[in-house]
Every structure is written in C-alpha cells, then in structure tokens.
Design goal:
GO terms for molecular function: cyclic-di-GMP binding. By secondary structure, the chain is mostly beta strands. Helices cover 0% and strands 65% of the residues.
Length: 79
C-alpha cells in the first residue's frame, strides 16, 4: 500500500477553545497540519458546521469535515 500525505502532520496535545453554532466548547488538539486539525472533544457536532478556533491570541475559522466518537476533524478556511 502506498500512502501519499498532502500535509505534514504534528501529533501533540494542546488545549483549545472553539465556538460552534454560538456555543463555546473546549478540547485537546491531537494532531495539527497545515490544512486542518483533529480535536478530541465531547458534544454533538455535524459535518459541514462552521467552527471558530482560539489558539491563544490567534483565531482561525474552519469547517467540521469529520465527526467521530472521540472528536472532530476540522479543515481550515471557509467552505
């Protein structure tokens, strides 16, 4: 099997705050790449929802592209 990666991915755990549909949530960044992030979190989320992420003083917008029992996959940027 050959696997092609489009972005280098860094695995680490950092707390993050984010807003989905006006609700503030918290989670842990599990891995981060240039194109997106996986956030370990609980809650009810849906693919296609817009999300605002807060990295310390930095803010970034994105779209939820994957929902799993342990968290959500987010693609950076607006759809």
């Amino acid at each position: 099997m050959i696997l092609f990666l489009t972005h280098l991915c860094h695995v680490f755990y950092v707390t993050i705050g984010f807003i989905v549909q006006g609700r503030h949530n918290d989670g842990l960044i599990e891995n981060l790449s240039k194109g997106g992030v996986f956030i370990k979190t609980s809650g009810t989320f849906s693919v296609g929802q817009e999300i605002s992420l807060f990295f310390g003083k930095e803010n970034m917008d994105g779209t939820i592209i994957r929902v799993e029992p342990q968290g959500i996959g987010v693609k950076f940027g607006k759809p």
